[in-house]
């Protein structure tokens, strides 16, 4: 019994430390509502549709030979959070797709080949673009297989 209490205390302390907020967390960060229609316009104006494909937006030809078309939106198993989408735009090297590690999407220094738009787009364009992208994802709910209850053999 003493072992279980100690284990529970250790797990509780670990959970609390893991949830600790600090000055470098996203806690308290919030952007205003965006306009998906304006986000679609921004997507096209910035030429995002040269390297990224998304439904209802014409794909532009790329002048970069062998550069992959990165599909955005559609049916996914995991929710694409607002924070993930913002981060992918303002810091594309944060999480470069591992499947494109043959120098196609990643540069030699392991950074993304995506152009940085931080000094190009306005905050309003960013908010609208993320709203547009967010609206294009459909989460497919994963239904676990129900095996019923098993009774222990005594």
Descriptive overview:
The chain has 154 residues and is mainly alpha-helical. It has one domain (32-139): Cytochrome Bc1 Complex, Chain D, domain 2 (Orthogonal Bundle). Helices cover 32% and strands 6% of the residues. It is built from 4 helices and 4 strands; from the N terminus they run ααβββααβ. The strands form 2 sheets. It has a two-stranded parallel sheet with strand order 1-2. Helix 2 crosses helix 4 and helix 3 packs across helix 4.
Distance between the termini: 24 Å
CATH superfamily: Cytochrome c-like domain
Mean pLDDT, all residues: 74
- How many helix segments? 4
Name of the CATH architecture: Orthogonal Bundle
The percentage of residues in β strands lies in: 5-15%
Helix fraction by DSSP (H/I, runs of at least 4)? 25-40%
Q: Under CATH, the topology is which?
A: Cytochrome Bc1 Complex, Chain D, domain 2
Number of strands: 4
- Strand ordering within the main sheet: 1-2
Q: Sheet with the most strands?
A: 2 strands, parallel
How many discrete domains?
1
Order of helices and strands: HHEEEHHE
Low-pLDDT stretches are none
CATH class label: Mainly Alpha
The outline comes out as extended
Assembly state (oligomeric):
single chain
Taking Cα atoms only, what radius of gyration do you get, to the nearest Å?
A: 21 Å
Determine the structural class based on helices, strands and strand pairing. mainly alpha
